[in-house]
Amino acid sequence: MIGAIIGDIVGSRFEYIPHKSKEFDLFAKDCRFTDDSVLTLAVAKAILETDRIRTREVCGCGNDDAYYAMLEILAVRQFVALGKAYPNSDYGLRFTHWLQSDDHLPYNSYGNGAAMRVSPAGFAAKSEKEAIYLARAATKVTHNHPEGLKGAEAVALAIFLARTGASKEQIRERMVAGYYELDFSIDQIRADYRFDESCQNTVPQALVAFLESESFEDAIRTAVSLGGDSDTLTAICGSIAEAFYGVPKDLELEALGYLDTRLRGIYDSWQERYGNEPLDASAVSCQCST
């Protein structure tokens, strides 16, 4: 999930000042982590805590309702805990209201927050089905609109596919078949693309920025060059690019320097548990009857 954190930090200074070029310093004094990093780490923490309480089936078939129910409970708990611990992280208005509410019920959102925080689901999954189930569980507690769930599922699945050796063309085909038309190029839309907080007008653009990229860094630069909701768009693109390319160590260390002890602790625990090693999908076989 370091790709999402890097994307968030790099894109943070351009969120309201669009930079329609790939030429810029990746890290600068006015860069910072925002809600994208905080809530991504909240999802990671929720998965870690759920794993501690209940182990998923090793086959990755996704047939464990109790696990996903527990993940939903702990996702809410971590969103509230970290959201309140970092109140000045530029949360969306509706999430802020949710955070301050007493009941913490889902609010039918299709905002791009569903997609920017979901990368741990893609990295923790052992199958395509499990990537989708993890994404749904971590998303539906707030963003239960069909477009919100769609955006989260698409990103988690793209990450899983990239982790398991899928080519860009294969990833594109799966995204088009199940989620979004990707019938544009970044150059075609850059001039007119504007700030948009919806999944349906952020996730496709982030996917194409990744698909057109030549490296992890190029993916980050391409996403920033679109303008718009730069930190979120680049966090989404960065999470998929991480799964496909890996992340240069110097960029990882630079980004981690922006996190405080609490957030860095979650990241280190995640790395110890999952480590983001490539997964051989052919080695995953389901022994369940369903």
What topology emerges from the helices and strands here?
Layout: H1 2-12, H2 35-53, H3 65-85, H4 93-100, H5 113-116, H6 119-124, H7 128-139, H8 146-163, H9 168-178, H10 186-189, H11 203-212, H12 216-224, H13 230-245, H14 249-256, H15 261-273
Helix pairs in contact: 1-2, 1-13, 1-14, 2-3, 2-15, 3-7, 7-8, 8-9, 8-13, 11-12, 11-13, 12-13
CATH superfamily: ADP-ribosylation/Crystallin J1
CATH architectural type: Orthogonal Bundle
- Helical region count? 15
- Write down the CATH class: Mainly Alpha
Q: Portion of residues in helices?
A: 55-70%
Query: Helix and strand succession?
Result: HHHHHHHHHHHHHHH
Examine the coordinates and then state which fold CATH places here, giving the name of the CATH topology: ADP-ribosylglycohydrolase fold
Q: Round the mean pLDDT to the nearest integer and report it.
A: 93
Protein described:
- This protein starts with a helix and ends in a 17-residue tail after the last helix.
- It has helices at residues 2-12, 35-53, 65-85, 93-100, 113-116, 119-124, 128-139, 146-163, 168-178, 186-189, 203-212, 216-224, 230-245, 249-256, 261-273.
- The radius of gyration is 17 Å and the shape is globular.
- The chain has 290 residues and is mainly alpha-helical.
- The model has no long low-confidence stretch (mean pLDDT 93).
- The relative contact order is 0.19.
- Helix 1 (2-12) packs antiparallel against helix 2, helix 8 (146-163) packs antiparallel against helix 9 (168-178) and helix 12 packs antiparallel against helix 13.
- It has a single domain (2-19, 32-272), classed as Orthogonal Bundle (ADP-ribosylglycohydrolase fold), CATH 1.10.4080.
